[in-house]
Amino acid sequence: MPKMKTKSSAKKRFRVRPGGTVKRGHAFKRHILTKKTTKNKRQLRGVAAVHETNMGHMAQMLPKCGL
């Protein structure tokens, strides 16, 4: 039986917290920032948690993390 591989793109974008939740960064914060409002850019700071409805996909992409 071959080993299960972790998706490299998911490995770079997500981190599994000790409680089992997954943290992610916000989208729309990388470029074309001049037309976005200061309020919008400020609210995109920090990290967010992956929604529980997407945790099945996370378990498939990150099999070694025990999700």
From TrEMBL:
Record's keyword annotation contains Cell cycle: no
Gene Ontology terms, MF aspect: structural constituent of ribosome
Protein's UniProt keywords contain Mitochondrion: no
Gene3D superfamilies to which the protein is assigned, alphabetical: 4.10.410.60
Cited InterPro entries: Ribosomal_bL35 (IPR001706), Ribosomal_bL35-like (IPR021137), Ribosomal_bL35_CS (IPR018265), Ribosomal_bL35_sf (IPR037229)
GO cellular component, one term: cytosolic large ribosomal subunit
Region (Disordered): 1-23
Record field: compositional bias (Basic residues): 1-16
PROSITE patterns assigned: RIBOSOMAL_L35
The entry's keywords: Ribonucleoprotein, Ribosomal protein
GO BP terms: translation
Domain of life assignment: Bacteria
Family as reported in the entry's similarity comment: Belongs to the bacterial ribosomal protein bL35 family.
NCBIfam families referenced in this protein's UniProt entry, alphabetically: rpmI_bact
PANTHER family registered for this protein in UniProt: 54S RIBOSOMAL PROTEIN BL35M (PTHR33343), LARGE RIBOSOMAL SUBUNIT PROTEIN BL35M (PTHR33343:SF1)
Name used for this protein in its record: Large ribosomal subunit protein bL35
